[in-house]
Structure formats: structure tokens, C-alpha cells
Write a structure and sequence with these properties.
The chain is an alpha+beta fold. Helix content is 14%, strand content 31%. Helix 1 packs parallel to helix 4.
Length: 316
């Protein structure tokens, strides 16, 4: 027996099935994809009793309308897109049961930009290269390799977990001004000292031409000492390319696998979840940190997720 939730009235702006990504295939030219905000995805899954890396729905700015064909436990984490069940407000970062026949819908975006909707039992779509994630540009994975449409039906398992919520200390605050920590390099020799100083002291704005592939930023021009081009090499998550225009681009979940532009730095893994919630118009400043500090911050985030997984800080 399976439980089902279809996309009922409307699919939202871009609602896709995502897990933690299709890792290990960049050498073959395949983007990792996966949740833009892996922290919110994992917590949403843990709140409904799933393994942390299970697939959930990622909704961007305008959420979908979903009708439950069976009762199932859900949780919504990440950006606040004003979720409601049958017109009643639904708290984020908490599991609850949506009963058969009820409709989950969303209103205006109040904070952040991406919401993660988990369903107890996960989402039953085929694994493609060890992942359920939708690779939008590649048109595979997830639900038929695309964003959801009205009338699509999602299948899960009849499993219910009730009344779990996250300690407030673990709930991120999404602001319209971010300080994003970076490790400088690997192509610093391609930039002047003045350019590196500009990068670390001036504000940049997230452009409307930003998506799951990357965030284009608008701000002071970053000048190269000679050319913006390099021999193409692998692109890490959070890599900050600077093409000839001098306007930086932060590469995100659905980034290309290699690139031929200089990189001035890389956003640390612990700051990717907050960056993923940034909307067009968000102001960003960059702060340099060392490798050891970046590793310690990632370890701390992973410890918090482990505490949740073992129930140490999940309240019932």
C-alpha cells in the first residue's frame, strides 16, 4: 500500500523533487543537482521519520497546491512561503499530519526563498545514478526529469510521525543582507591586490538572473591582472567565478561540472544553506576564513544534524 499526494490546483513557480544530490559523476559531465539548501531538506526529513537524505519537494518563491489522497505526516522547513492547510496557517520546522482530502497551499513569500516539503516515507521516484534529484537542465531524475505540473501524482509510504519540532536555536534566520564566508583562491595570481581588497570589503547584490545553476552578482568590477580565462578545471559547490565582465558568479547545486573562468574564492559549505535562501536583491559581503575554521563550522553543522537524527534536540 502507498499513500499519494497529487499536485492539485497549481504546481508553483518551480517545484522539483530533490535529495542530497547525484554525487560522484562530475567527471562524466553530470551536475550533482540536489537541494539548494541541504540543511533544511535534512531537517524536514528527520521531522517526519525519514532518513536525512531522502527526497522531498523543493518549492521556489511560489509554492504548489497539493491535495492529500491519503493521510500522511509532512514537515515544511526553509523559506517561509506562508503554508496553509485548508486555509489555516501551518508552522514551519514542525511535523504534522495532513488528512485525506485536505489541501496544502502557499501564499506570499515572507522570508527566504526555498521551502522543503517532506513526506513520511519519502517520494517514490526512480533512482537515476544513485539519486532521486531532478536535474532540470539535463531533463532527468526526479519526476520525469522536470518541475511538477498540475495533475502529477506523488507516491510515498503509509507512515505517520506526529508532533515533532526543532529547537528554536537550530532554526536559521534569513536576512536581506548576508555575510558569506569564503576561502580565497585558487586563482589569486589572476587578480590584483586591489581587486582582492574590493572583493572582501564591498557589497554585491544578487541579480534576478540567478537560478539553481548559479547566482549572478552585481557590484564593483573585479579586475584581472591579465586574462579572465584559465584552462578548464572542476567547479566546486560555492565556487566564485569572475568572467571578463568582472561581475562574480557563485556556482550552486546545478552548476556546470567544469569552467574556464578564474575563481577568486569558494563559499564554505556551512554557509551554502543561508546563501541558497537569498532572493534577488539580497546584499552580500564576503569574509575570508581559513580552511581549518571552515572545516570546524561544517563539523558543527553536521553534529547538529546528527543530534537531530538521534533525537537529542528534537522535541516531541
Amino acid at each position: 500500500m502507498v499513500c499519494t499526494i497529487p499536485v492539485y490546483l497549481k504546481p508553483g513557480l518551480q517545484t522539483t523533487v530533490q535529495d542530497l544530490g547525484r554525487n560522484g559523476f562530475q567527471q562524466y559531465g553530470i551536475s550533482p543537482s540536489g537541494a539548494m539548501d541541504p540543511y533544511s531538506l535534512q531537517i524536514a526529513n528527520l521531522l517526519v521519520g525519514n532518513r536525512s537524505g531522502e527526497a522531498a519537494l523543493e518549492a521556489v518563491l511560489i509554492g504548489p497546491s497539493l491535495e492529500a489522497l491519503d493521510s500522511v505526516s509532512i514537515a515544511i522547513c526553509g523559506g517561509n512561503l506562508s503554508p496553509r492547510i485548508d486555509g489555516q496557517d501551518v508552522p514551519l520546522w514542525k511535523s504534522r499530519v495532513i488528512k485525506k482530502g485536505q489541501v496544502l497551499s502557499f501564499g506570499p513569500c515572507k522570508e527566504g526563498g526555498r521551502a522543503y516539503i517532506s513526506m513520511a516515507g519519502g517520494i517514490n521516484v526512480p533512482l537515476v545514478l544513485n539519486s532521486k534529484s531532478t536535474f532540470v537542465n539535463g531533463k532527468f531524475g526526479g519526476y520525469e526529469g522536470r518541475a511538477l505540473k498540475a495533475g502529477d501524482i506523488l507516491h510515498g509510504a503509509p507512515f505517520t510521525v506526529m508532533n515533532r519540532f526543532v529547537h528554536p536555536d537550530l532554526v536559521p534566520k534569513y536576512n536581506q543582507k548576508l555575510t558569506v564566508r569564503v576561502i580565497l583562491g585558487p586563482h589569486l595570481e589572476k587578480f590584483t591586490e586591489a581587486t582582492i581588497g574590493t572583493f572582501l570589503t564591498k557589497e554585491y547584490t544578487v541579480s534576478p538572473q540567478s537560478n539553481r545553476m548559479g547566482y549572478q552578482l552585481i557590484g564593483p568590477t573585479l579586475e584581472h591582472s591579465n586574462s579572465a580565462d584559465i584552462i578548464s578545471d572542476a567547479i566546486p559547490l560555492g565556487g566564485i567565478q569572475v568572467p571578463a565582465s568582472g561581475q562574480p558568479i557563485i556556482l550552486m547545486a546545478e552548476r556546470q561540472t567544469t569552467g574556464g573562468y578564474t575563481r577568486i574564492g569558494t563559499v564554505i559549505s556551512a554557509d551554502i544553506p543561508l546563501l541558497a535562501q537569498a532572493l534577488p536583491g539580497t546584499l552580500i559581503m564576503f569574509k575570508e576564513v581559513g580552511l581549518t575554521e571552515a572545516q570546524d563550522l561544517l563539523k558543527q553543522m553536521n553534529r547538529e544534524l546528527k543530534w537531530l537524527e538521534t533525537g537529542a534536540r528534537v522535541c516531541r
